[in-house]
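Structure tokens please, single chain.
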Amino acid sequence: MATPEERLAELGLTVPDVVPPVAAYVPAVRSGAHVFTAGQIPMRDGELVATGKVGDTATPEQATEAARQCALNALAAIRSQTGTLEGVRIVKVVVFVASTPDFTGQPAVANGASELFAQVFGDAGVHARSAVGVAALPLDATVEVEVVAEVAEVSA
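Here you go.
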């Protein structure tokens, strides 16, 4: 059975460095067997991969790819607390989509994150989820994703 890192490699992906916070918070906090990530915006190599609102300056396809990048960034935040992605189960995902009032495709955009988690973790990546349209996100990001993960073994 392949590890999450091996599955990422098969997809041609790697877990990036943890995205530095843009305000007064930390990227993730571990509490017992759970890791709670801060909202992860779609940063790649220090730049946002998508800005603006879906239905205006951003397409649903751009937002879906941004959600996928947010998911990778969430994996980095989780791994910063666990040291590995093995034994991780994705429990809850919340996806915020900056969108115009008439755009109602937030669930499809959120699939960018959800499908990545399922590809990386298999059944342990299938999760509860909320997909919410919002007026604006930090730095004009198109998408923000936060995750609650469960860790199989609690280490000291």
